[in-house]
Amino acid sequence: MGHEKHHDKVVPGLLNEKDLCKVREAVCIQVEKIYDSCREKDCIENARVIFKHNIQNIVNEAINVKVRCAEVVDVYADIEEVPFKRGFFTVDVKFFIRVTLDFFVPDDGGVDIVTRRGLVVFDKKVILFGSEGNVKIFKSHFKGDCRIDKKEINLGSKLQQDNLPIAKVEVAEPIALNAKIQDVLDKFFEDCCCIDQIPRGIADTLGVDDEDDCNDDIGPANQVPRRRVVVSLGLFSIIKLVRLVQLLIPAFDFCFPNNI
Description:
- This protein is mainly beta.
- The termini are close together.
- The chain contains four helices and nine strands, in the order αβαβββββββααβ.
- The strands form three sheets. Strands 1, 7, 8 and 9 form a four-stranded antiparallel β-sheet that branches.
- A hairpin with a 2-residue loop joins strand 5 (about 135-150) and strand 6.
- About 10% of the residues lie in helices and about 55% in strands.
């Protein structure tokens, strides 16, 4: 049990009244203090799916599409001060969500299921309190390939944190709600970025199952995009603003591993 004591020492777990008298010292530690946070529930409706390779031939011929699963592959966050309210910051968050789709394509009197991966980009903005910071934090660092007499050299300090707080985003895996093929009708949709605007590392997460098979997806070079794929997702996230602060806490002892 976590509250059991061995050799009259306090171990991680529940405490009792006898443990409080075993506090040895007050320790100053540096931790990330949460100044503000918000819990968000977003329903992303009819978000356009971006594909790494041209699969317009499949999209045009498919009679149905289903979303198998969705996964957040990366999140970008940017912070800016709110000019009319001191201590508050706008947090712009961009979610990159990878979706796996099953296309139902007619073939020789039957239906083939073709699986492809795409990417959904979702932007969100919130305003949170992040306090006011009037200091800059510098951290000493070393460079391993710079040596004198086989010893590493301290090359100076590196700015670890400026006046801005740190934004942290916790996100659960999205819930795949729906997918459908939408007709372009009288104009081509341009309400979403293309694959060339996606960072290479994120685009590479889409992968390629079969290069020859993907080449067959392209179709005629002069084929006009008549349809596009859109999905609806449920996204649950927690956005926080934190700063590094020093706290004074009571300490029992150094934490040593327990022998089981």
